[in-house]
TrEMBL record, chains A, B:
PANTHER family cross-referenced by the UniProt entry: QUINONE OXIDOREDUCTASE PIG3-RELATED, QUINONE OXIDOREDUCTASE-RELATED
Keywords annotated in UniProt: NADP, Oxidoreductase
All copies of domain Alcohol dehydrogenase-like C-terminal, residue ranges: 205-292
UniProt entry tagged with the keyword Oxidoreductase: yes
Keyword Membrane: no
L-erythro-3,5-diaminohexanoate dehydrogenase N-terminal domain segment(s): 10-157
Pfam families xref list: ADH_zinc_N, KDD_N
UniProt GO MF annotations: mRNA 3'-UTR AU-rich region binding; NADPH binding; quinone reductase (NADPH) activity
Protein's name according to its UniProt entry: Zinc-binding dehydrogenase
Organism listed in the record: Anaeromonas frigoriresistens
One GO term describing the cellular component: cytosol
Length: 345, 345
C-alpha cells in the first residue's frame, strides 16, 4: 500500500508541489493510500456561493446542474467550482481506514460522518447524481470520496437529523468565530443575517453582546427578515441591498446615532459587498468576511481608498470546537431549529 | 460647481451605486466637483503585483507597457489593472482645490503630495507617458488626477528625495501594520522579506520583537537575501520558493524546533503562497496577507482544509500614522536607505 502525505499532496496532479486545495487537478482514484479514509458518499452539501453560481449558469435546470457538477469533478477530481473557487462538504459512511491511521483516529468502518474540510480539496468520484435539492444546496449521489490524515470531520450526532446536521455543520465556522470575536456591549452588524450562516451568527452575537450590546441584522428580502424578526434574533432589522455601500452606511448610521458597528460579520454570498461592510463599521472596528464571494483586493484597497483603519479578517471555516458550537445552537433554540429544518433540511 | 460625494461616488459610471474602487468605469473628466482636489501628476508608482503582470504581458517591451497602461486608463478612467485588481499611487502638485474643502484641508495650491489612496479608485488622465522606470515600477507621465474628499495623502518631506519617498509611501501600510501587530518575544516570518515592503517589515519586526524574539526572512533569490543579510535585518534567512508550501513549512520548522511562527507577514507579489504562509504559522498564530496576489478563497479554504485555527488578516494599506512610520525608517537606518535608493529610487 502506498504511503501518503498528511495533507494529501500525494494526490496532486497539477500544479506539482501545491496542496490539494489550490491544485487545479487531483487524483480521484479510489484506491486508498496508507493514511487515507475511504468514504461511501451519500450527500454533497455544495457551498452556497458555488451552488448559486451553478444554478445561475444552469438557468435553474436540474439536468444542467447535474451536468455542470459532473463536469467539475471530471476535470478537477474534486468538486471545486472554477468560478468561485469554493467547495462545500459531504456526509457518508466510513468504508475503509488506512492502516497507518490505526490508533490515530477514533473512527471505525461503518461510522456516519460529515467531512468538515472543503470539497474543494477532497478527492471525489461521482457515479450517479440521485437527487438535487436545489433550494437547500444539497445533492444526493452515489460515489466515493477520500479524507486525508489532516482532514477534519464530525461523527453525526444521534439527536439531530442528518440533513439538518449537515446544513448546520456546513457553516459551523461562522457562528463559532462570532462567538470568539464578539464581546459584551459590542454593536454587531450581521450582513446576510437572514441566511443560513447569518442566523447562527445572529444567535451567537446576541448571546455574547448581552444586554448592553446591540445586534443589527441586514437582509435582502423582506420575507426572510420577517422570519428572523419572528425569532427575535436581533435588536434591529434592515431590509436592504448589501452591494449599495452608501445606503448600508446610512442605515447603520441612523440606527447607531452615527457610531457605527464595532464588528461586522459578512455572510452574503454575492460579490461587491466589501465596501458596505467597511463603511458600516467604526474606523478601528473589525470586519469578519465569511462570504466566499469576498474579493481580497476589493476589501484591502477599499478600506485604504476611504482611509479606514479597519481590521479585516478572512473567514476561516475551521476553529476549535466549531462543530459542537454550531450543533449546540440547534439544541438551545427550538424555534430556530424549526426554521432551519424547514429551510435547509 | 457640482457638489460631490465624500467618497467620490459621483464619478462612478458603472456599475451604478458602487464606490469608485469596485467600479469598472469611473469618470475621468478633469473639471473638479466642489469637494475634489485636482493634481498635476508627475509620477505613477504602479502596484508591484500589477506592474509585474503588465511587464509579463508586454514581454518587457517599454512601448508595449505604455500601450497597456494607456489602455487600462482609457477603458476604466483609472489605473486599475483588470487582472490583479490593484493600482498603485502617484506624486504630483496640487493644481486646484474645491471650495467645499476650505478649512477642511491643510493643502494649498502648489504643494507637492503623494496620494496614499490606491490608483485603483483615482480618476486619472494620461496625456503622455514620458518615462518608464521598469525596474522600480515607476512611470513618469504628463496628466491629471483627482483626489476625493475621503482620500488620504502625504505632503512630501523635505529631507527625503521624491522618488525615494514615493517608493516608501507606496508600501507604507506594511511596516506600520507590522509595528502594530508584533509583540516582544514573537517569532515573525516575513515571506518576501527581501522585497520592497518586506525589508521595511523586517526592520519594524526586528525592532518590536526585541532580544527575546526571532525574525525569519524568506526570499526567492540568493542575491536579494545576501543583500538583506548584509543589512542584518533578520535573525535567520531562507532562500526558497514561497509557493512550495511543504518546503516552507519544513524550513521554518527546522529553524524554530517545530514551534513555527507566531506571526507571518506575506509580502510576495506572486500567486499561490497562501498555503505556505498557513503551514509555517502556529495553529493559533496570525497571518497578515499584504500581497495583492492573495486569493481570499485559497486562504480561507486552505486553512480549513488542513484544520488550522489561523487568524488571517487582509492587508489594509492604510493605518493611522503609516506614512510617518515608513518614512521614519529611512531616517533611522542609513544602510537600508542606501539600498532603497539604489533599488527603488
Amino acid at each position: 500500500m502506498k504511503k501518503g502525505c498528511k495533507f494529501g499532496t500525494h494526490r496532486v496532479i497539477e500544479p506539482k508541489g501545491t496542496l490539494p486545495q489550490p491544485a487545479t487537478k487531483i487524483d480521484n482514484n479510489m484506491e486508498i493510500y496508507d493514511n487515507e479514509i475511504l468514504i461511501d458518499v451519500q450527500t454533497l452539501n455544495v457551498d452556497s456561493a458555488s451552488f448559486t453560481q451553478i444554478k445561475e449558469e444552469a438557468g435553474g435546470d436540474i439536468e444542467k446542474i447535474k451536468e455542470i457538477m459532473k463536469g467539475i469533478v471530471e476535470s478537477r477530481g474534486k468538486h471545486q467550482n472554477p468560478v468561485t473557487g469554493s467547495g462545500g462538504m459531504l456526509i457518508g459512511t466510513v468504508e475503509k481506514i488506512g492502516p497507518a491511521l490505526e490508533g490515530k483516529t477514533d473512527l471505525k468502518v461503518g461510522d456516519k460522518i460529515a467531512t468538515l474540510v472543503s470539497l474543494s480539496l477532497t478527492p471525489l468520484r461521482i457515479d450517479e447524481i440521485v437527487e438535487v435539492r436545489k433550494d437547500i444546496d444539497q445533492v444526493d449521489i452515489n460515489g466515493k470520496a477520500i479524507l486525508f490524515e489532516s482532514g477534519i470531520y464530525a461523527v453525526l450526532p444521534s439527536d439531530i437529523p442528518e440533513n439538518l446536521a449537515l446544513s448546520v455543520l456546513d457553516v459551523a465556522g461562522a457562528p463559532a468565530q462570532t462567538a470568539k470575536l464578539v464581546k459584551p456591549g459590542d454593536t454587531v452588524l450581521v450582513i446576510g443575517g437572514a441566511g443560513k450562516s447569518g442566523m447562527l451568527c445572529l444567535y451567537e452575537a446576541k448571546k455574547r453582546v448581552g444586554v448592553t450590546g446591540t445586534v443589527i441584522c441586514l437582509g435582502y428580502s423582506e420575507k426572510s427578515i420577517e422570519r428572523v424578526k419572528a425569532l427575535g434574533l436581533a435588536d434591529h432589522y434592515i431590509v436592504g441591498d448589501a452591494t449599495n455601500a452608501v445606503d448600508v452606511m446610512n442605515r447603520v448610521s441612523e440606527l447607531t446615532d452615527g457610531k457605527m458597528a464595532d464588528i461586522t460579520i459578512n455572510n452574503v454570498n454575492v460579490p461587491n459587498t466589501e465596501m458596505g461592510s467597511i463603511l458600516a463599521t467604526k474606523d478601528d472596528g473589525t470586519i469578519y468576511f465569511f462570504s466566499m464571494a469576498t474579493s481580497f483586493t476589493k476589501a484591502a484597497l477599499g478600506a485604504e481608498g476611504v482611509g479606514r483603519d479597519s481590521n479585516m479578517i478572512m473567514g476561516n471555516g475551521y476553529t476549535k470546537g466549531h462543530a459542537e458550537i454550531a450543533l449546540q445552537i440547534m439544541r438551545e433554540n427550538e424555534e430556530l431549529r424549526k426554521v432551519y429544518e424547514e429551510l435547509y433540511a
